[in-house]
Amino acid sequence: MSKIHVTVWNEFRHEREGGAAEECYPEGIHAVLAELFESRGFDVKTATLDEPEHGLTEAVLDETDVLTWWGHAAHEEVADEVVERVRERVLDGMGLIVLHSGHFSKIFKRLMGTTCDLKWRNEGERERLWTVEPSHPIASGIDEQVVVPEAEMYGERFDVPAPDELVFTSWFEGGEVFRSGCCYRRGSGRVFYFRPGHETYSIYRQTEIRQVLENAVEWAAPKNIDAPSFGEVPVGPERRD
């Protein structure tokens, strides 16, 4: 079986501005995720906002099976033509994994067709990530609950369409709950939104979170299924009443 080709996209602004984000991820969040995926045997590229075409050229996307997306403060700087390019690839079968504050990215909002808004509070609260669909491939090897010691709270209502499959739900110390692991199918592509993560917390180094991300890449990767055909077709040899 050929390797899964993963492109890790990161806005890569906070980590270059000093402070807690740079201290937590000095090489960028994309570097930590790329190391994870490489260690699991995937073929990995990285791309960032300030590269030409945000690093997501036609050639890069042609070689991408799964794209992971992390953005926060500069969603509006992503060019619409690049967003449309990614959207078309998802509809054609490329997997997309949207992380944490990427819920407000142009590509996620366009694929969802909603505001993707939510409640939030950043007080470093404890999060309990509950596995509500343990039979799902993304939950493979994950216990009934995962404790994230420090997290930014995201709370309902989360303005997204009802997921095709809900794998994880979060509870926070303040009492809020959140749909944290949402699976969607768009065209021939698979989309997974995963809430845990933040630029100033080491969540992407936590073993269980890394296992979820590995599982998500394998789930989202294109499957060997013929694409559907569309358009006008001739009348068949037999007509049915």
Q: What characterizes the major β-sheet?
A: 9 strands, mixed
- Describe the strand arrangement of the main beta sheet, using strand numbers: 2-1-3-4-9-8-7-5-6
Distance between the termini: 46 Å
Give the helix proportion (percent range). Answer: 10-25%
- Element order, helices and strands? EHHEHEHEHEEEEEH
Unreliably modeled segments? none
Please give the radius of gyration in angstroms.
Answer: 18 Å
Count of β-strands: 9
- Helix and strand composition category: alpha/beta
The percentage of residues in β strands lies in 25-35%
Count of individual helical segments: 6
> What's the overall average pLDDT, rounded?
95
In brief:
This protein has 241 residues and is an alpha/beta fold. The protein has helices at residues 19-24, 29-39, 58-62, 80-92, 106-112, 207-220, and strands at 5-10, 43-48, 66-70, 95-99, 119-131, 145-155, 165-172, 177-186, 189-194.
